[in-house]
């Protein structure tokens, strides 16, 4: 989420026609068509952050600026050239890093929350102890993971660390409850 992604088509020969067909998980079909003979691009129902990038002596690439969850889905490129027809497919999976928060509940137990991550984050504690975890799914495909740490010892001065593991990165926060 928030980064840019560039997709390209593989083909041989001089490009005559290039067509991107985008089928996102959410929203409608988007097409971008480039005709080399007229040097024209036609687009239908594509969001403003999806465009073709033109560079000298290279075929146009598809750029998705500031990727959002709505751009997740299938991307297919068809090229007609003097050498034949070529087809390239991509499936774009979007990862959203969770927002980490750590607090103490009314009983003095540490509570760690990894909010709105995609895929769900994995939470662990240091020092090791028993914990309970629950997941809440959101309509946009993200998941919030909530974990409560329970220590056998009632030492008030002990510092507890919540560690979050996620494909978008790893984070930790410490607290003394």
TrEMBL record:
PROSITE patterns: IG_LIKE
Single Gene Ontology MF annotation: signaling receptor activity
Domain of life: Eukaryota
Topology in membrane: Single-pass membrane protein
InterPro entries given in the database record: CD200R (IPR040012), Ig-like_dom (IPR007110), Ig-like_dom_sf (IPR036179), Ig-like_fold (IPR013783)
Record keyword Transmembrane present: yes
Family annotation (Gene3D superfamilies): Immunoglobulins
PANTHER family tied to this protein: CELL SURFACE GLYCOPROTEIN CD200 RECEPTOR 2, CELL SURFACE GLYCOPROTEIN OX2 RECEPTOR PRECURSOR
Protein name (database record): MOR1B protein
Organism of origin: Melospiza melodia (Song sparrow)
Gene (name only): Cd200r1b
């Amino acid at each position: 989420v928030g980064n840019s992604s560039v997709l390209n088509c593989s083909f041989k020969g001089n490009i005559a026609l290039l067509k991107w067909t985008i089928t996102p998980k959410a929203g409608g079909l988007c097409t971008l068509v480039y005709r080399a003979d007229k040097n024209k691009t036609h687009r239908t129902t594509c969001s403003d952050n999806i465009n073709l990038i033109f560079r000298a002596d290279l075929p146009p690439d598809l750029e998705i600026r500031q990727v959002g969850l709505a751009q997740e889905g299938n991307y297919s490129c068809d090229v007609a050239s003097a050498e034949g027809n070529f087809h390239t497919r991509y499936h774009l999976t979007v990862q959203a890093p969770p927002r980490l928060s750590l607090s103490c509940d009314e009983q003095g137990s540490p509570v760690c929350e990894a909010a709105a991550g995609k895929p769900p984050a994995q939470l662990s504690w240091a020092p090791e102890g028993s914990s309970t975890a629950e997941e809440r799914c959101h309509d946009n495909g993200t998941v919030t993971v909530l974990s409560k740490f329970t220590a056998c010892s009632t030492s008030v001065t002990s510092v507890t660390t919540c560690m979050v593991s996620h494909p978008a990165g790893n984070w930790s926060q410490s607290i003394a409850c």
